[in-house]
Amino acid sequence: MESRLKLFYLLVSGLCLFASCATAQSNSIDPRTALAAACIAPSDKTGGLEFTADSSYIQLSSAGDNAYASIDGERMKGLVEEQAGIARRYREAGNQYWGRIIGTSADHETADWMMDQLRQSGVENIRLDTIALPAQWLPRSWGLAVEVDGRATMLTSAWPAYGSVGTSSTGETLELIDVGLGMATDFKGRDVRGKAVILHSIATSSTVFNSVRRIGALERAEEQGAAAIFIVLELPGNLQTAFYDVGTSVPTFSIGSEDGVLLQRLLTDSALTDSVEIQIKMEVDSLEGLNTSSVRGEVLAATPDAEKIVIVAHRDAYFEGAADNASGVATALELMRYFAQIPQSERKRTIEIIGTPGHHNIVRTGFSWLYENRESILDNAVLLINAEHTAHALIDRFGDELCTTNSTGPFSWQINGSNTLAEITLKTFDEFGIPRWAETGGPVGEIRTIADLVPSIVLMHAGVLLHTNIETTEAIPAASLAATTRAYAKIIERVSGMGLSELTQ
User: Fold this and answer.
1) Residue 320 region, left (φ>0) first, then alpha (ψ -120 to 50), else beta?
2) Would 226 disulfide with which of 197, 205, 303, 389, CB 3.0-4.6 Å?
3) In what order do the strands lie in the sheet with 159-160?
4) Taking 70 as the threshold, does the pLDDT of residue 439 lie above it?
């Protein structure tokens, strides 16, 4: 009995102690409830992912890097937001197909904005190189609707693949058929002729690189007579995703996974003898007489015959395009501001910026323009840097959700040049804590037509949010912008005493 009483008193004392501790710490944070959940499948309800505060991201710095402290990640993030604002204004003006789309008012506003940023930084020889465009594909409007519980329901995630053909002005009503991943065995015994074919695609390294394209499912669907193709990108949420030209000759759309589940349910619940139909309407324009431009400026060296370093950043984007490529433009602008602060008498090389119109159109205008003007662009150039997708939070996948983290990257990279240039570049990336692939690889991006003509560096993050409507400013950590841009500045300074032959061989 006595032992039981002792146990009772101990229990009461423990509860009282817990209560007093809880009272004393009433202002402390309970991490289970006080912080927003990071793993959220984005949808119409959430509007996107929830990212950690900029101050929370992992950062690496050393005393030797203090010289680059004036390269300000917060300022660059503001530049990213301003570019995102241009894209949003274009959407709010009534454009369903939105972003900083080449040849449109958003494109011209971006060029003017970029020139103004260069003027404020003290950059010289600021100018536009105007480029006439061939006829441009531009969808005016579209809509996909199915009947759910007796009423029409729009598939809000539907987004036309670049270059897709439209429908008649009245639209089309087609029977739906789901062929899974679109492998040869998935089509076996299935009649897809004249139907709207659903393909499920698994994103690999990013949304643009996915299984449907890798296994030839699009070609298979079209060869067998599909009248329309819907690519359900199997990422959590209901993302809108902009694919590059998929090369089909029938209306082709990307679909978010939540809308994909809806279509699956309709097909599963329908009677064996009943079909499920979808209404498709898309009006596409082919616009003549448009133009775009490359924005150019220079931070001049002490002598007029000095060698130069060229920094390229494409200006166009789908949706807000915060990583692709507002981050790259912000990096290029900040580099120009940084080097413009150095007295001209101390500058060994001219730094030139080129804000190209970009490659998000069928003729890949930026690629073509750089190649056509390669001789003048690369005249006396000793190094070419592609500022593209220069910052991004690491997004991971766990179960049915996308999860944000307090880390950045990882980045793919390619270096054309000497072993010495490669050693300097990779060492500098590591010094600033930039996570990267262990091996070289990945896309070269905007400079791909000229990257092999001079020593060049590409560092790029192309993750799961690429070309989606949730690739927003929130996904771009200021710490990541600062790290990449400071690394580029240090690389430029480290190679300042090296000649072209040392950078090449």
Assistant:
1) alpha
2) 197
3) 151-154, 136-148, 277-287, 172-178, 196-201, 228-233, 252-255, 159-160
4) yes
Place of tokens 């970029």: 114
Domain extent listing, the chain: 54-134+289-504, 136-287
Strands 196-201 and 381-387: unpaired
Return the H-helix or E-strand segment holding 139.
strand 136-148
Count of CB atoms situated within 10 Å of the CB of 32: 6
Which residue type sits at 67? A
Q: What stretches of 248-360 adopt beta strand conformation (E)?
A: 252-255, 277-287, 291-299, 308-314, 317-318, 350-356
DSSP 370: H
Lowest mean pLDDT among 25-29, 136-140, 169-173: 25-29
The reported pLDDT for the residue numbered 396 is 87
Q: Given this model, what pLDDT does residue 38 score?
A: 55
Q: Which of 389, 345, 400 is nearest to 205 (CA)?
A: 389
pLDDT digits (tens, 9 = 90+) for 410-424: 999 999 999 999 999
Assign domain 54-134+289-504 to its CATH superfamily.
Answer: Zn peptidases (3.40.630.10)
Percent of the chain with pLDDT over 90: 77
Query: CATH topology of 54-134+289-504 equal to that of 136-287?
Result: no
Q: Mean of the pLDDT values across residues 182-197?
A: 96
291-311 pLDDT tens trace = 999 999 999 999 999 999 999
Q: What angle do CA 416, 69, 330 make, to 5 degrees?
A: 55
Predicted confidence at residue 409, as pLDDT, reads 85
Least confident of 25-29, 449-453, 488-492: 25-29
Q: What percent helix, strand, coil does the chain show, rounded to 5?
A: 35, 25, 40
Q: What is d(CA 471, CA 241) in angstroms, rounded to the nearest whole number? A: 10
Q: Find out whether 383 and 492 touch, Cβ atoms under 8 Å.
A: yes
